[in-house]
Amino acid sequence: MFRHVSLQSSLVTRNFARSAGSRRLASTKSLRETLQEVIPPKQEQLKRLKAEHGQTVVGDVKVENIIGGMRGIKAMLWEASVLDPNEGIRFHGLIIPDCQQVLPPAPGGKEMTAESMLWLLMTGKTPSPEQSQQLSKELAERGELPSFIIKLLDSLPKSLHPMTQLSMGVAALNHDSVFQAAYERGTKKTEFWTYTLEDCLNLVAKLPALAARIYRNVYHPDRSIAPIDKNLDLVGKLEDDHYLPIS
């Protein structure tokens, strides 16, 4: 069994790396442009699945499943990742060592960036180094906190748990939700993804600034936070002691 899993993993990695290499020669499409290609076929696939198998029974529910927090129940359609008890988690067919092999690292680094993993999760495709860096720059441009969020975070007591503060900051960003505005305008459901994407990117981009502000307020209120270095990726921002005052 384990030999079969190992061979399967190796085959998936080689195929993914081969296709990734061919894409990297010419792939300069943005994340949005890539999703514009990926999503319509997925929408059609979902329609067919519902039409052809809508009444298919996929399992039984026992009391122990309910008590165990729905453990063992097939209750959600999810494609981006699969957790196996033996080989661990797979992201679109790739285990973590596979991802380390095919996903672009930060310039001068060896480990995959958060941006390249985000790209894989959202599209099922491997980004080129240029695409990953392009996404990093786009997130950096979106990374500044609105003044009302700064005011909210600065008003919170230091004794409030940082995760509670983070939850409050994230929830308050709903004020600027692109999806909410589009929904209230009566946007078609087939176009929801474009506005959801905007909200997702805005939220991901602002997380380093949220974390830095909360950390500074709780542990180093006497220190200032440097402006965002737009040349750094998401993880690089959190490692920058000028931006995140750890010492």
Q: What's the structural blueprint in terms of helices and strands?
A:
Elements (H helix, E strand, L loop, with lengths): L1 H23 L6 H23 L9 H5 L13 E4 L3 E4 L2 E2 H7 L11 H10 L5 H13 L5 H9 L6 H11 L5 H7 L7 H28 L14 H6 L8
Antiparallel strand pairs: 1-2, 2-3
Task: Explain this structure.
- The chain has 247 residues and is mainly α.
- 57% of the residues lie in helices and 4% in strands.
- It contains 11 helices and 3 strands, in the order αααβββαααααααα.
- The chain has helices at residues 2-24, 31-53, 63-67, 96-102, 114-123, 129-141, 147-155, 162-172, 178-184, 192-219, 234-239, and strands at residues 81-84, 88-91, 94-95.
- The chain has a 3-stranded antiparallel beta sheet with strand order 1-2-3.
- A hairpin with a 2-residue loop joins strand 2 and strand 3.
- Helix 1 (2-24) runs parallel beside helix 4 (96-102) and helix 9 runs antiparallel to helix 10 (192-219).
- It is globular and about 60 Å long.
What features would you highlight for this structure?
247 residues, mainly alpha, 57% helix, disordered N terminus
Q: Rg to the nearest angstrom?
A: 21 Å
What form results from the Cα inertia axes?
globular
- In the sheet with the most strands, the strands line up as 1-2-3
In percent terms, what proportion of residues is strand? Answer: under 5%
Care to give the gist of this entry?
This protein has 247 residues and is mostly helical. It has eleven helices and three strands.
